[in-house]
Amino acid sequence: MSVEATETLLVRGLDDEGPGDVVGAFANEAGIDPDAIGDIGIDGDEVTVEVDAGVAETVVDAMDGGRIGRSAVTVEVLDEATAAVEDYVREYRRLVDLEREAEMERHESEIRSLSGREREEKGRALLEMRGRDEGESIAGYEVKFVKPRGRELPDTEIGVGDLVMLSKRDPRRDDNPTGTVTGVTGHSVTVAFDGEPPGFVFGDGLRIDLYVNDVTYQRMADALERLRDADGALAALRDVIVGVDDPEPSTPAAVESFRDGGLNESQREAARAALGADRFHLIHGPPGTGKTTTAVEVIRQAIDRGESVLATAASNTAVDNVVEFLADRGVEVVRVGHPARVTDQLIEHTLDSRLEENETYRRSRDLREEAFEKLDERDEYTAPSGKWRRGLSDERIRELAAEGRGSRGVPPEKIEEMARWLDLQAEADHLFERSDELEREAVDEVLDAADVVCTTNSTAGSEALSGRTFDTLVLDEATQATEPSCLIPITRARRVVMAGDHRQLPPTVQSERAAREGLRETLFERLADRGGGRSLLETQYRMHAGIQAFPSERFYDGRLTADPSVREHTLAGLGIEAGDLPPDSRPVLDPAAPLVFTDTTGIDAPERQREGSTSRENPREAALVARLARDLLDAGLAPGDLAVISPYDDQVDRIEDLIDRPVEVDTVDGFQGREKEAVLVSLVRSNDRGEVGFLDEPRRFNVSLTRARRKAVVVGDADTVTAAPVYEAFLAAVRERGRAIDLAELDGA
């Protein structure tokens, strides 16, 4: 290679070709001297090729869209922007693969530890199935599985695209076959195998286990590919995401009239800024500030401007929350997703429900019924297979039938039956094809008539939305979704408005390695850290001002204010008086003290770990918290107004057993997004080593403290928990402005 300046070319699409094939193609097709070619690096189907700068464009012009060996390839100059995109896509593909592997390991662990019946109840297995050979198809070797006597399948998470494992007696065998689900009905699951599966698959007494929910991972991978190949508005979004461009501040749009007259000024400012954004805008909504209310206003204003709108969130619950907000305000909303995952009250808004009312869809169903009738009639004739076909092509069978002749020992009447079978199959295929066309038309009609389409991030990548691009995407609970999850709906949009709070807990990531290496950091958080368009909602409608004070100062730059409707509300407003409480718990539960820290340092309340468990529990602290909960209930607090939360599963189980009342007891992580009038928090950790484990996650404590409306009681060992800076700061604040109680001084502790 010469010593002049060089450029790097990116070649994509290679199969088995090597460096020699690349050099040969460049020399023969582009007509360049092999000496102008330098280092060649191969990574899967991608190749980087260093060439003299003077020939780079020549190679691109000659080879882009051409072939190297047998592979169709694309070729482009790998400039700084292209390299950033490639690095981004490669890195997130790697993280997604790590997460997929972790989910597979989780399923394997669950298969080992749970009974088949328990797995079926969770929707992750199907028992007592029997297999029927469906023959080969483009998807592979297909087998249809049904329950005995055609029983209906139970509710299941198993869906089209998922990887499943088949077993007869032992689901833990290494040689159990796996396949991909190609069809699911209320009575059957069809699975495609790479080759002919073992014979037991065609018997009965079979078990199907969900091995990994591959649909979402595939949609993440597809979104990354769309991002890499993007142009137009999506390319502009991509360049911000990967860091080629910086996020830009939004220019607030003029809004003549807000649809929700009750919005406060920070919510209005956020809506204006979101509507004025060219690419991204972030709505930062701390607890109780009406984040979803603001997001819904953005949706309604965008609709008023004639924009097409897609609204998504990571979970079905969060999506249903948005659907309910919109439907209650008269917005024509269509919820895309499996009806089984939608609350009963919102079924009428689902795509499936709307299709039932669509005339085009009814015609599609009629044609499908007619096709099945053809198949029933077909089954009355001899099928052209096995001993009757004898190597005859379909066309030859038809020719012989027309001539009334037999062949190769097959009598004329069998030839005629096989020809009739083929004709009926062809008629059924045509009817199915036309039915599918009408169904797609019906889906388009329903979606085109909607003001807004709502779905989970994952389902935004479904066939129903294929080929659609929306003017505005409103992505709620964006800080509860991994970045690849957010990319699925983002690749359907021209502008993105994300609502979330990166000061609360990040999304759950099963792979510890993927979490460490970046998957737990959300797109919302990355964009927020880089500046650009972000609006903070500053008025909260949940917490007493005394509860709000510490989270505001610690996590939100002191900018939160309590609305007058909640600023001074206490348990006294619910009829709970200090005199209703037992004397020994009165200082802790006193309605006049909205925020209390109860210090267990002076009593014998050590943490412990159950054998075989990775969690923690504190029996003495659990007994205390359970007693405080019972005292509140006995004083007149409704069970539905009280929650007890703890970072540790084992402590949750222990407290739940001790309370023995219909009170919600949950982990902090599980209670995120919820609120109660009174919340008791059990911190558990108490040791002489100052070990606090994952208590040393400030966002987890932010979630713990901000669930309460009128009363928050935090119970823990001050000497231990203050090893974490957030608790040290909290103790200082509560001693100054709240109430800190040394439990050793209370009788009966």
Structural class: alpha/beta
* N-C termini distance: 82 Å
Helix tally equals 23
The major β-sheet equals:
7 strands, parallel
In what order do the strands lie side by side in the largest sheet? 15-16-14-17-18-13-19
Cα-atom radius of gyration? 31 Å
What is the structure about, briefly put?
The protein has 749 residues and is α/β, with parallel strands linked by helices. Helix content is 38%, strand content 20%.
Which short descriptors sum up this protein?
749 residues, alpha/beta, seven-stranded parallel beta sheet, six-stranded antiparallel beta barrel, 23 helices, 27 strands
Tell me about this structure.
The chain has 749 residues and is α/β, with parallel strands linked by helices. It contains 23 helices and 27 strands. The strands form six sheets. Strands 15-16-14-17-18-13-19 form a seven-stranded parallel sheet, sandwiched between helices. Strand 10 and strand 11 (188-193) form a beta hairpin. Helix 3 (80-113) runs antiparallel to helix 5 and helix 3 (80-113) runs antiparallel to helix 15 (512-519). The longest helix has 38 residues, at 412-449. It is globular. 42% of the residues are buried. The model has no long low-confidence stretch (mean pLDDT 92).
